[in-house]
Design a protein that fits this description.
- The chain has about 140 residues and is mainly α.
- The protein has one domain.
- The protein is about 65% helix and about 0% strand.
- The chain is built from five helices and no strands.
- α1 packs antiparallel against α2, α2 runs antiparallel to α3 and α3 packs antiparallel against α5.
- The protein is elongated and about 45 Å long.
- The model has no long low-confidence stretch (mean pLDDT about 85).
Length: about 140
């Protein structure tokens, strides 16, 4: 299979767009009004997450620490980090949202880190499965 960074980016951004739009339209169904700016920012964050995972996925080894990075480690780490930034920047708004919804007693915004890890794993798996991995330098 020919490795393509462009295909990885297309796959990642598509998954990010679908995930962001899903959250944007499902939240009101769960009884939580989603601020338009917050929803748009979430969509853009997920699209950016897909692109970043796609670009990092072209590296077989960590450039500084020189250890092999499997696809699942890259997706998991980047999903966690991006959702950590999301929670830190919008903690108050996310706290209000999860407290209003109260799904299975999970009333802390920090549960979003698990969502980010799962989304990162899905993106990294799909990008690696359908567009390959590694093969730097890019040609």
């Amino acid at each position: 299979m020919r490795h393509s960074v462009t295909n990885r980016i297309i796959i990642g951004k598509t998954i990010g767009l679908v995930a962001g739009l899903s959250v944007f339209f499902i939240m009101p169904l769960l009884g939580e009004t989603l601020d338009f700016k917050f929803g748009l920012g979430l969509i853009l964050l997920y699209i950016l997450l897909g692109a970043i995972i796609a670009l990092v996925g072209m590296f077989d080894r960590h450039p500084v620490l020189n250890f092999k990075m499997p696809w699942w480690l890259k997706g998991l780490a980047l999903g966690l980090v991006m959702h950590l930034v999301l929670v830190l920047l919008s903690y108050d708004q996310m706290a209000l949202m999860v407290q209003k919804m109260d799904i299975l007693g999970m009333v802390s915004p920090w549960w979003a880190l698990i969502d980010g890890a799962i989304l990162g794993l899905i993106m990294s798996f799909a990008e690696t499965k359908f567009a390959g991995e590694g093969a730097l330098p890019l040609k």
